[in-house]
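I can't quite decide. Please look over this sequence plus structure tokens:

:::
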Amino acid sequence: MTRFAILVTITLKPGMAEEFKPHILANAEAAVRNEADCHQFNVLQSENDPDTFFLYEVYTDSAALAVHRETPHYKKCRADIGDMVAKRNIQPVIMLNP
């Protein structure tokens, strides 16, 4: 059985990391807790650049990601962090060994 995942790279405006963290961590926690089809949501911070974050999210399928993007916690997070983000790159992938 394969799973759908995304790798997200978020580059923040300089100096925004500490303000960003509680918002993205709350979103990740709510996704895993409240969404049956969200199996994993890891938040990673670059060791070399504290304003660069990586998200690794695993869902049952791409439809589950669409559901995630309609949840109140996701919408709140996007609204709260919108002015902090300089650049976002989303790479959809298929997890071959869940």
In short: The first strand starts at residue 3 and ends at 12. Strands lie at 3-12, 38-45, 52-59, 85-95.
